[in-house]
């Protein structure tokens, strides 16, 4: 009799200390995919609408589980007086520190900035490499420790994290709650998820995922949102998932979380 898998890979079980950011960038971002450029455009236009008329550099932003991806941070740049990149895996923390150092970020991120700067608020940022270095702090820590904390941000992103760090449904939902709980009432946010992902490989290591679809994502976010749109992007970047979901919205003020 064939036995099914009985254990579930939880967040604490995955080899985060072995995560290779350069391989991850090679696999996902070094050659920009249409779907990521589309996500960047949607996020740019959404944040521009949310901050219409707001003073530049007036809010505190956070990218949770930033990993080796700078485009969520760049998407928040015009409005942030402070920007925190929270990341758990030490090699990714090191990668991010290098990206925001005076040496400036890798040219791999230029095509994403080129899309962003088509909008006036972004175009008004003269030197994005200097600006991101001035406003950004990288912190090693877990998303789960944001829950119940007192820190709140006015703008936030979380890309491929709650669904891409554990197979456990409880950890997916807790991850979303912790992210939403870290946002102040009214805060705009963008969150992206791999649709129906069965896990992913980076270099020689396998990482877990919880399979989500549009309904799962909507159900997890709705209690915390006053405004929510979910874009189902039917682009598959590798075998083992069915596309990407981009949620754009604002944190409501009614519900205390988590
Ligand atoms: C699939 S990667 C996504 C990285 C990046 N945000 C992106 O858009 O490509 C998942 C990320 O979640 C991070 N991660 C895993 N567990 C975490 C936790 N408990 N708290 C915060 N980040 C975590 C990993 O280190 C990794 O950077």
From TrEMBL:
Entry keyword annotation includes Mitochondrion: no
Ranges in coiled-coil conformation: none
InterPro entries: NNMT_TEMT_trans (IPR000940), SAM-dependent_MTases_sf (IPR029063)
Membrane-crossing residue ranges in chain numbering: none
Lineage: superkingdom: Bacteria
Gene3D superfamilies for this protein: Vaccinia Virus protein VP39 (3.40.50.150)
Pfam families per the UniProt record, alphabetical: NNMT_PNMT_TEMT
Signal peptide residues on this chain, from the entry's feature table: none
UniProt KW keywords: Methyltransferase, S-adenosyl-L-methionine, Transferase
KW Chloroplast (keyword) present: no
Matches recorded under PANTHER family: NICOTINAMIDE N-METHYLTRANSFERASE, NNMT/PNMT/TEMT FAMILY MEMBER
Name of the protein in its database record: Methyltransferase
Organism field: Streptomyces olivaceus
């Amino acid at each position: 009799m064939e036995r099914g898998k009985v254990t579930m890979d939880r967040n604490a079980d995955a080899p985060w200390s072995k995560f290779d950011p350069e391989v991850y960038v090679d696999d996902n971002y070094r050659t920009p995919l249409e779907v990521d450029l589309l996500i960047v455009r949607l996020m740019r236009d959404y944040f521009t609408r949310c901050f219409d008329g707001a003073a530049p550099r007036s809010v505190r932003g956070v990218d949770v589980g930033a990993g080796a991806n700078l485009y969520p941070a760049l998407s928040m740049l015009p409005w942030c007086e402070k920007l925190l990149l929270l990341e758990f895996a030490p090699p990714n923390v090191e990668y991010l520190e290098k990206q925001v150092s005076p040496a400036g970020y890798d040219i791999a991120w230029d095509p994403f900035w080129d899309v962003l700067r088509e909008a006036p608020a972004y175009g008004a940022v003269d030197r994005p490499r200097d600006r991101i270095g001035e406003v950004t702090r990288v912190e090693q820590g877990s998303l789960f420790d944001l829950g119940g904390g007192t820190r709140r941000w006015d703008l936030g992103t979380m890309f491929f994290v709650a669904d891409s760090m554990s197979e456990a449904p409880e950890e997916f939902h807790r991850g979303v709650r912790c992210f939403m709980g870290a946002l102040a009432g009214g805060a705009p946010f963008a969150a992206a998820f791999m649709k129906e992902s069965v896990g992913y490989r980076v270099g020689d290591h396998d990482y877990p995922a919880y399979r989500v679809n549009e309904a799962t994502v909507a159900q997890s976010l709705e209690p915390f949102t006053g405004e929510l749109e979910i874009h189902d992007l039917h682009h598959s970047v590798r075998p083992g998932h069915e596309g990407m979901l981009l949620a754009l919205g604002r944190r409501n003020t009614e519900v205390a979380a988590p």
